[in-house]
Automatic annotation (TrEMBL):
Positions with a binding annotation for Ca(2+) 2: T203, D250, T253, D258
EC supergroup of this enzyme: oxidoreductase
Protein name: Peroxidase
Documented EC number(s): 1.11.1.7
Domain of life of the organism encoding this protein: Eukaryota
Catalyzed chemical reaction(s): 2 a phenolic donor + H2O2 = 2 a phenolic radical donor + 2 H2O
Keyword Amino-acid biosynthesis: no
Any one GO cellular component localisation term in the record: extracellular region
Functional note: Removal of H(2)O(2), oxidation of toxic reductants, biosynthesis and degradation of lignin, suberization, auxin catabolism, response to environmental stresses such as wounding, pathogen attack and oxidative stress.
Pfam families (UniProt xref): peroxidase (PF00141)
Length: 312
C-alpha cells in the first residue's frame, strides 16, 4: 500500500514538473536605469528634445498632448508605448481608437518625428516606450519655462498588446469622484499625493465640450457661474462626435505648465468633475492649497510624480 502511494506521489510530482517545463515564464520586467543609452545611442535624449522643442514652437498644444499621452500610456499595460499601435486586421480596436484617446489625443506626429530621427542615428536601439516618456519630460520642461526639469531612467520595453477595452477600464474619466480617482491611481501604485500633483497637468491643453457638458447644462454644479456662462456660449447644448468643439482647460495661463490649476480649483473655475473632486476631502483640499500658494512646490512634486508614473 505504501509503495502504491509512493508511485502516485511520484506520478503527481512528474506531472507538476512537466507542466512547469511547458508553462513559459512571465516576461521579465525592464530594469530602468539612468543613462541607459549612454553607450548604445549617446544622442538619444537630445534628439527627442529637439523634436519636442520644434513641435512646441509651432504649437504649444502638442506639448500638452505629449504629457497626456505619457499618462494614458502608463495607465494601460504600463509604460510600453501600446498607445501608439495602429489598428490591424487582427486587432481593429487598439487603445489609440478608444474613446479616451480618439479623436482628442495629440502628439503622435511628434513621436514619429523623434523616432525617425533616432532610427537614422541609432537604428533599432531606442524603444518607442522610452521616446514617449522622454517626450513628456521635455514637453514639461519647455512649457514650464524650464522649471520642471528632471532626469528620467530608461530601458522600457515596447508592448505588443493594445486593447480598447483596457483603455476604457483603466483610464479615469473626467466624471470620476474622488474615491474612484484614488482607486484608479492605487491600482497603478500611485498615491493620493500623486493624484493631486499629476492633476495639475490640467493647467495646459484643451478639452472637448462633451467631457464637461453635464457641469454646465444640469444644475446644480459648483462651477463658477461666470465661467459656466462663458462655456455655454462656446459649447453646443448637446455636443456629439460631429459637433464637439474644444476649449482651453486653464483660461488664465493656457499654454504654461504652472500651478495656476490649483488656484482655479479653489475658485471653482475648472472643467471636470474630477478636478472639482479635489476639494471634497480635507486631505486633498489641503494639498491643493499648498500647491497653489507655496512657491516652487508643485513643480518639484510634479517632476517626482512623473518619474514615479514613468516606472509603472
Amino acid at each position: 500500500m505504501a509503495r502504491f502511494g509512493a508511485l502516485i506521489l511520484a506520478a503527481l510530482l512528474g506531472a507538476v514538473a512537466a507542466q512547469a517545463q511547458t508553462t513559459p515564464p512571465p516576461a521579465p520586467r525592464p530594469q530602468l536605469r539612468f543613462g541607459f543609452y549612454k553607450h548604445s545611442c549617446p544622442p538619444a535624449e537630445v534628439i527627442v528634445r529637439d523634436a519636442v522643442r520644434n513641435a512646441i514652437i509651432a504649437n504649444p498644444g502638442l506639448g500638452a498632448g505629449l504629457i497626456r499621452m505619457a499618462f494614458h500610456d502608463c495607465f494601460v499595460q504600463g509604460c510600453d508605448a501600446s498607445i501608439l499601435l495602429d489598428p490591424t486586421p487582427a486587432n481593429l480596436r487598439p487603445e489609440k481608437v478608444s474613446g479616451p484617446n480618439f479623436p482628442s489625443m495629440r502628439g503622435f506626429d511628434v513621436i514619429d518625428a523623434a523616432k525617425a530621427a533616432l532610427e537614422r542615428f541609432c537604428p533599432g536601439v531606442v524603444s518607442c516606450a522610452d521616446v514617449v516618456q522622454f517626450a513628456a519630460r521635455d514637453a514639461a520642461f519647455f512649457l514650464s519655462g524650464f522649471r520642471v526639469d528632471y532626469k528620467l531612467p530608461a530601458g522600457r520595453l515596447d508592448g505588443r498588446v493594445s486593447l480598447e477595452s483596457e483603455a476604457l477600464a483603466f483610464l479615469p474619466p473626467p466624471s470620476f469622484n474622488l474615491s474612484e480617482l484614488v482607486d484608479s491611481f492605487k491600482v497603478k501604485g500611485l498615491d493620493i499625493d500623486d493624484l493631486v500633483v499629476l492633476s495639475g497637468s490640467h493647467t495646459i491643453g484643451r478639452s472637448h465640450c462633451s467631457s464637461f457638458s453635464d457641469r454646465i447644462s444640469m444644475p446644480p454644479s459648483d462651477m463658477d457661474p461666470g465661467m459656466a456662462f462663458v462655456l455655454k456660449g462656446e459649447c453646443p447644448a448637446n455636443p456629439n462626435f460631429t459637433k464637439d468643439p474644444t476649449v482651453v482647460q486653464d483660461f488664465v495661463t493656457p499654454d504654461k505648465l504652472d500651478n495656476q490649476y490649483y488656484k482655479n480649483v479653489l475658485k471653482h473655475k475648472v472643467l471636470f468633475n474630477s478636478d472639482a473632486a479635489l476639494l471634497t476631502s480635507t486631505q486633498t483640499a489641503r494639498k491643493v492649497v499648498e500647491n497653489a500658494f507655496v512657491r516652487g512646490r508643485w513643480e518639484k512634486k510634479f517632476a517626482k510624480a512623473m518619474v514615479k508614473m514613468a516606472a509603472v
